[in-house]
Amino acid sequence: MFQFTYKLRVAERVKAKCERHPRYNPERDGRGGIKGGCSTCFSLYDLHHVRLMLDSAHRDF
Predict the structure, then answer these.
(1) Burial of 2 (0-12, 13-18, 19+ CB in 10 A)
(2) Among candidates 33, 36, 57, which has minimal Cα distance to 45?
(3) Where are the domains of the chain?
(4) pTM for this predicted structure
(5) Mind listing the pLDDT tens digit for each residue in 2-13?
(6) Burial environment of residue 45 by CB neighbours within 10 A (0 to 12, 13 to 18, 19 or more)
(7) In the predicted model, what is the mean pLDDT of residues 19-45?
(8) Backbone phi and psi for residue 39, each to the nearest 5 degrees, phi listed first
(9) Which long-range contacts (CB under 8 A, 24 or more apart) does 8-16 make?
């Protein structure tokens, strides 16, 4: 029988904005709010999406 004790804490805060679209909020606007295929806005959305997936995986674990 194996027994594991595992404690994970992720405490990161990211403050980032697109220079061309400073009002873009990936949490509120989602992927559909990205204007003109802006690569910075896509990166902000991807960062937000990966953070949600990490939080979900942490809860499931």
Answers:
(1) exposed
(2) 33
(3) 26-60
(4) 0.74
(5) 777 777 776 777
(6) buried
(7) 94
(8) -70, -30
(9) 8/58, 8/61, 10/54, 10/55, 10/58, 14/47, 16/44, 16/47
